[in-house]
Amino acid sequence: MKYVIVLGDGMADRPLEQIGGKTPLEYANTPTMDMLAKVSEIGIVHTIPEGMTPGSDTANLSVLGYNPRIYYTGRSPLEAMSIGVEMKDSDIALRCNIVTVSDDFEYDNKTIVDHSSSEITTEDAAILLEVVREELENSEYKFYLGTSYRHLTIWDKGSKDVILTAPHDILGKKIGEYLPENQDLRNMMRKSYEILNNHPINMDRRRKGLNPANSIWFWGAGTRPNLSSFEEKNHVKGAMISAVDLLKGIAVSSSMKNINVEGANATLHTNYEGKANAAIEALKSDSDFVYVHVEAPDEMGHQGNLENKIKAIEFLDERVIKLIYEDLHNEGIDFRMLILPDHPTPIVLRTHTSDPVPFLLYDSTIDKNCNYLYNEKAAVQTGIEISDGFKIIDYLLNK
Asked: How many helices (H) and strands (E) does the chain have?
């Protein structure tokens, strides 16, 4: 038996008037998921433990079977593992986003316009981060390149109690009250605007109609993670396919294999087929379990872009799920496939929520008759509910 999780990051949402009171998942044209729903188990799962911040870190740990209350030490340390940064016990890792802040007013009265700087390319971000590094890096703070707008700072002997806010949670709000109390961090963020705002790359981005990447933003502090081995825990050999350092870091920390796919870039225009084909190849070779993570629905939710969120869900259905299902089915390989989001990223809020998410569990060896489709409303109606999200892996593995 082979096992697959296809995770559409932030895919769940809330009913929207502009699409007839449906959610993007309910409205999207998803013939493969519709077909699978008729022969699968549909339900809801609570991926975010009560009282914890709804994020891709806690949620994906849950889906992979790691109780966030036990294993979560912060988002950035997991990303550090992916980048290959060795952390000391005294280190604090910080996510260092390159964001767009408004050009008006002094820094503290600006607003965050775009948490992703128009999904800046890693190539452009590398140039900008190098300028920041030259001006701001010292023995206490080190900067490391990640992917797109997502980068890393290691704070030597830093405070794990520092209060930081995710930029996608305060889009359009004045940033002054959300700046760190720590003066070093606050001053580096202010200084970064002076360094970046009129950089030639940003002048060129403005001419192209793109948002300038004109400030760094610290958040997601944490200490070195210590996940147990996924294979030892679940008795299956696992592989991760994702363009996002967070997911790659979880894989590194849990001794899963990371599979890099050319053209996978965590945007709407990622290499969907490449991810699907990599999953198929892995399942046919040395992996019993593959986790296919697609970031696009979440990014579109943060942007408040309904049309593209619907497209992202349709791309997931047509260019990932369909390819994996048809290949394994045609080859006569027994498999169980779990399809779900990690958390909702509602269009109207442009940030994550802790609402439970719908899941679809397909087993190629069992004939089922189900009268439900796969969406948020139908998942609630089935009455199937998994309260502890970290147990859904056992559900998939039939343990």
From this structure: 16, 13
Q: What radius of gyration do the chain's Cα atoms show?
A: 21
Gap between the Cα atoms of 318 and 33, Å rounded: 9
Distance CA 274, CA 281 (A): 10
Per-residue pLDDT tens over the stretch 328-346: 999 999 999 999 999 999 9
What's 185-243 look like in SS3? HHHHHHHHHHHHCCCHHHHHHHHCCCCCCCEEEEEEEECCCCCCCHHHHHCCCEEEECC
Chain segment 65-101, per-residue pLDDT in tens: 999 999 999 999 999 999 999 899 999 999 999 999 9
Judged on CB neighbours under 10 Å (0-12, 13-18, 19+), 181 is exposed
Whole-prediction pTM value?
Answer: 0.88
Question: What CATH class is the domain 2-73+228-397?
Answer: alpha beta
CA dist 362 and 317 (Å) reads 14
Q: Where in the chain is the domain with CATH 3.40.720.10?
A: 2-73+228-397
**Helices 272-284 & 322-330, crossing angle to 10 degrees?**
30
